[in-house]
């Protein structure tokens, strides 16, 4: 179980890192032209960059506390925050009719729920 949770956290961290880098450092116009990025055309540049920073923090929060052993309880907290972020992403993509992105965000949400459940329960770092 522990190995599966580490793999899930690593994969989700990679997703968060990729999304965070693109939102934080790519121009808003380039994001708006990309598939699934249409919503960025309606959002302020500051909001898009703030989401990017949140995703970068999520990438760190999913693995760094556990790797360093410093407040490893932040891993399930980060996963729960990711769930909230994915709910917002699903609503945003559904408004644009991007249902394949809704399904993708639902998959990311499911992975985050698995991490939160596992790290708060059977494979807790405090156990």
From TrEMBL:
InterPro entries for this protein: DoxX
Membrane topology according to the record: Multi-pass membrane protein
Cellular location(s): Membrane
Ranges that cross the membrane: 6-26, 47-67, 73-94, 101-120
Keywords: Membrane, Transmembrane, Transmembrane helix
Protein name: DoxX family protein
Source species: Amycolatopsis nalaikhensis
